[in-house]
Amino acid sequence: MNTIPNKSELTEFDLQRYERQIRLQGFGKEAQRRLRSSSVFVSRVGGVGGTAAMNLVRAGIGKLVLAHPGHVEPEKLNRCQLLFPADVGRSFVDVSAARLKSINPDVEIVTVRDSVNESNVAGLVAQADLIVDGAPLFEERYLMNREAVAQRKPLCMGAVFGMEGYVTAIVPGESPCLACIYTEKPDYWTNINVFPVIGPVAVIVGATVAMEAIKLLTGFGTPLKNVLWFFDLETNHSRRFHVNRKSDCPVCGGRGGHQHKGD
Amino acid sequence: MSTIFLATPLRHYNANQAQIRLDLRSLAELIPALEKACPGIGASLCDQAGAFKPCVNVFLNTENVRDLQTDEIVLSERDEIHIIPAMAGG
């Protein structure tokens, strides 16, 4: 664990700020301390990743590593909770980091003005205890998945298309990785503009991803391991699908663990 | 009649409807029946050998059909099938 020094003690203000969640059955001060001592790498801080980052910061995460290339564009404003119209043209990751820091000045934030790629993925994953995957390209998602498995770091994956979304918690050796669940990307997913989306869909996925990260970092609750939680907000249709590791998975196959049978 | 739920990228094959009801006796009848009702959908779901593409998951109720290891399962009136392609939107 990338334990953050001198961050495990809760101040009087912390105890007030986090009082409502400390009161949750099974959470308590110990989970709050664990969160405070934990670090998360968020790949892209858009509608999903930005919402996840915002909820992690509000919950009291100790450190975030944020990677996002480019500048704020108007089309991001319908779903990116951290961005305002006046931010158009500014560095996406710098604006997001500043907003997160204003929400919780205690959080340590490392920013990278780039997306995940072959040359930086190992170093980015190494800086965190857990990965949040909100990238809009499968190439980035498969890279992070591969590295999460290699470094045995949990990865919370959330994605959207239109009014639909899904979330799962990937724990190497315990639950299927992205390549077990979807070995290849669809042919039509050729760029970041493929998917339509409206704010609430991305926000629900991002908030759920944040909750999964909190569960895995603190031991609180039951994470979505071996479960792909799917929803369609157009009809409010929702299902929990069982997903299993593949013994011949090109990424995690043969790396220990067990096959899950439905609950 | 089984209920088949189609994720958004597949709905243009079904007059933009999310669900379709099909009379299926077994899972093996799914793709031929879907193709008949929604022409063109079969090629987007299956490879030339007839296997589901790796970018698509098909769930019978809560279970991935790949894990069932047979398509001869007899379907009942209450069975649901979800067809969910991979997504990466953020």
Characterise the protein shown here:
The complex is a heterodimer of chains A (263) and B (90). By secondary structure, chain A is α/β, with parallel strands linked by helices. Helix content of chain A is 33%, strand content 17%. In chain A, strands 3-2-1-4-5-6-7-8 form an 8-stranded mixed beta sheet, with helices on both faces. Chain B is α+β, with helices and mostly antiparallel strands and 90 residues long. Chain B has one domain: Beta-grasp domain (Ubiquitin-like (UB roll), Roll), CATH 3.10.20. In chain B, 19% of the residues lie in helices and 24% in strands. Chain B has 3 helices and 5 strands. In chain B, strand 3 (56-60) and strand 4 form a beta hairpin. Chain B starts with a strand and ends in a 5-residue tail after the last strand. The mean pLDDT of chain B is 95. Chain A binds chain B through residues 44, 46-49, 134-138, 141, 158-166, 181-189, 194-195, 197, 202, 228, 230, 232, 234-235, 237, 239-244, 262, and chain B through 5, 7-9, 18, 53-57, 59, 62-64, 67, 82, 84-90.
Q: Nutshell version of this structure?
A:
The complex is a heterodimer of chains A (263) and B (90). With 263 residues, chain A is an alpha/beta fold.
